[in-house]
Amino acid sequence: MADSFPVLTLKKNEERRIRGGHLWVFSNEVDTKASPLNQFEPGQLVDVQASNGKTLGIAYINPLSLICARMMSRDPKYPPSASLLVHRLKQALSLRQSFFEQPYYRLVFGESDFLPGLVVDRYGDVLVVQITTAGMEAMKDDVIAALEKVIRPEAILLRNDSKAREREGLALYVESVLGEVPEVVELEDMGVRYRAPILHGQKTGWFYDQRMNREALGHVVREKRVLDVFSYVGAWGVKAAVEGASEVVCVDSSETALEFVAENAQLNQVDECMSGIQGDAFDVLKMLRAEKEKFDVVIIDPPAFVKRKKDFKKGKEAYYRLNQMALQVLAKDGVLVSASCSHHMPRHELQKAMLHGARHIDRNMQILLQGYQGPDHPVHPAIPETEYLKAIYARVLPA
Asked: Which of 51, 156, 217, 397 could crosslink 178 through cysteines, CB 3.0-4.6 Å?
């Protein structure tokens, strides 16, 4: 019950956002006279109350963080517990199973699945888990137990090496907590087979969020020459080859990633049309332009250039520069596929970056398709930060 938890009191009128469905309480919204933040321990459960004393729900708190509390339950009769975790996981699983026949997807997407601070990617019988908040770290044992009960996996890996943990005052570590975790897993993504490095790869080893956007490649790459920049292990590039591209060149700064590209190409019997270039994306694009190389389709799916709002100006400049350089190696009547995983880079700004690049080389542009994150990365309508992925297909024509 709520009266068994210490009270976190909000300032007058600061409960409106929480009542509207948001899950975050910011430290400047707390009435620190009524409930001093220094009295709480990171990860502790609290009864969040409006200034009139009415309970809004149960949250976990971290007094050291700007987001000092995250709502876990609206009903004080059902506070965070092992059974609540099982219930939320079952809800998350049913959503994924309704969209995907094979067990390869993001099983839990934090706040959007009402499990703030928890991300789980599923690779068949192997789960890769990321915990990014003190509150979820405090529930780690219950999380693992709930995953075992609902999914019955053979192995669980904790990839708790995200820098987001540092902002919560948490240690970084990677730990196997169930079974023998393989270094590499096999998965299927829209009919294409891949091998992904979950122990030492980027984040959880794979990026399921672009799945639906990659599916559209079949409309534009057949018998075309394709350049895949920031290829990682070849999700876009191998898909393009499977869809009938005549040649695919993958660019990545990591030699290991390009080795996986070659392996994934062989896995799908498209290795004869695929090659890789190791190097910084901007340097490679500059080199390709100097060599007068042209591609019918250019795909740019970079890491987040705008991780925080204060980075917007510098990050926007990087997107503008990248799109311009990509267009300089695009053939006439070619297709640019440009993506951004930066929440703070709005869709209209990405379009402007693309158009600016087209006009720089005196080309016209048509937007063909616009993509979003897949349904295993649902958007919480009260939390704009959960909507982050943009993918735009654009045809570029002589003016």
From this structure: 156
